[in-house]
Amino acid sequence: MLVSVSLLGSYDYCSRKVFLERVLKLFKPPKDVMVKGTVKHTAFELMDLAEESLVKTISKSDSFDSVQERYKTLYQKLLRNAIIKNKREILSVGLEPQDLFMQSLQVINNEARYRSAIAFDFAAANNLFNEELWENLVPKTKSEYSLKSENLCLSGRIDQLQIFPKNFVPVELKSGKLPRDDVWPGHKLQLAGYALLLQEKFNIAVNRGIVRYIDHDAAREVLINPFLKQEVRSLTKEIFSMLNNLNIPDRVTNENKCNACNLKADCFEDSKVEKLLADITKKS
To answer: Domains in the chain: how many in total?
Structure first.
């Protein structure tokens, strides 16, 4: 069994909740959330496929505004295509395609601004345009990049991978609250997990990552040092042991975490938890 990189941050935040979700099966993601994730995945894949032809349209006479507008126009079209492709699933969970389009529009426009800035700035700095720009553009971006390692006992899918000639930079796209500075601890652990997977696969040192808080159009760099990588290795072993040996962790002592948790009622109902655990133990 491999540990998902996404579990690292969740485990660090509350290991007991991970146990309740993954072992006792007390929570399943809402189906509408899963469908929204599928639409996002489809849209970003289409963006990757369109990147080459889009970059090749950038000429010396273009302004940044004109390049950004081309990106926005195309990305909005690709979002519509992703929604049409998944229309049956969208309707089956009670979502309206037009509402989903409007809900996703800010993220798509932010992505257009982000990627168009990379291409335009590189073109201006190197005086390269059209096909020559595409051939030399650094970095290029690959979305939803999957990795796994039996040796590390880890698996995961990177939201975006920035590809440089001799290195890679994992990028995580996160919604929700923006930290005052730096990034949230769980997000840092995820980047370190992806760094370890990339290092093993490509035999290169990966010491940098980026978290993009897409609701705030903010990008923050994370330096991934050896101590952070070792913390990931240690947490992976703890999670693996917990899931396989049915060791239920104690509750956290932070009341704010408990009050905001959707599993609080189940977590504090000891008889229910003990019964579920006993049932699983008998089957194993």
So the answer is: 2
- At residue 159, φ and ψ (nearest 5 deg) are -55, -50
Cα separation, 42 vs 82, in Å, equals 6
Using the structure block, give the residue that is written with the tokens 């991934």.
Answer: 224
CA distance 191 to 199: 12
Looking at the fold, whether 47 and 21 belong to one and the same domain comes out as: no
Together in a domain, 192 and 223: yes
Report the C-alpha gap between 34 and 262 in whole angstroms: 17
Rounded CA separation 189/6 (Å): 9
Q: What tens digit of pLDDT does each residue of 96-152 get?
A: 999 999 999 988 999 999 999 999 999 999 999 999 999 999 999 999 999 999 999
CA distance linking residue 139 with residue 80, whole number of Å:
27
The answer to whether 197 and 152 are in contact (CB under 8 A) is: yes
